[in-house]
Amino acid sequence: MRNPNPAIIKQIKETALKMLMEKDPLQIGMRDIARECGITATNIYHYFKDKDRLFQAISLDCLYKLNERITENQESESSIKDKIIKSVKAYRDWCFENPRRALLVMQGIKSADDLTPEMIEEYYVCNRTGEKLLYEAINQGIARSSNPRLDIGILVSGLWGCIESVLLKKSEREYWDNGSEYSDRFIAMWCDSIFIEG
């Protein structure tokens, strides 16, 4: 078996992502991606078992980029509470700045639920960053949570629900162009339930 060629893998992913920005995943076939890359369908299958695996790899790349942004955003803050809030807003802002990509990653690409538990865990990279921060806040005595993983999962899922309702124009009309205000309310409610006043 040939060794993987990183340049071809990168080209395949970049081409597929560009196509996903214009078409629904169901409208894109592996042969279409191969043709756009100037390679054979056989070649593309050497690197990815099927298009679900390719799209999942792209989704994972996006999540790692998002996590980089989350991590960079919190670096300027000294208090753990501010780090958490800044991280949450970085997630929210990325979604509003990249609506098509966010919709694809969060709902448009088939979940990688048939992978090994270790591989599935990679898709929770942003959650784990938040979880570490919440544990630190609990250890400092400024937050309460009997299950930080669950509380971060609820934060991410609930905030995504707010973001999605704005992106799909299912929120109140006044927030269609002001998703930050709409989502800030959810963030504040979550913070009120987690952080200890004092």
Task: Describe, in plain words, how this protein is organized in 3D.
By secondary structure, this protein is mostly helical. The protein is built from 10 helices and no strands. The longest helix is centred in the N-terminal third of the chain and has 24 residues. The protein is globular, with a radius of gyration of 19 Å. The model has no long low-confidence stretch (mean pLDDT 94).
Defining key terms:
198 residues, globular
Q: Strands, helices and their partners?
A:
Blueprint: H1 6-20, H2 30-37, H3 41-47, H4 51-74, H5 80-97, H6 99-108, H7 117-121, H8 125-139, H9 148-167, H10 179-194
Helix pairs in contact: 1-2, 1-4, 2-3, 4-5, 5-6, 5-8, 5-9, 5-10, 8-9, 9-10
Brief overview, please?
The protein has 198 residues and is an all-alpha fold. The chain has helices at 6-20, 30-37, 41-47, 51-74, 80-97, 99-108, 117-121, 125-139, 148-167, 179-194.
Distance between the termini: 62 Å
Q: Taking Cα atoms only, what radius of gyration do you get, to the nearest Å?
A: 19 Å
Number of strand segments: 0
Mean pLDDT equals 94
What is the general shape? Answer: globular
Instruction: Provide the β-strand percentage band.
Output: under 5%
Helical content band: 55-70%
By secondary-structure content and strand pairing, the structural class works out as mainly alpha
Order of helices and strands: HHHHHHHHHH
Tell me about the largest β-sheet: none
Spans of at least 5 consecutive residues whose pLDDT stays below 50 are: none
* Count of separate DSSP helical elements: 10
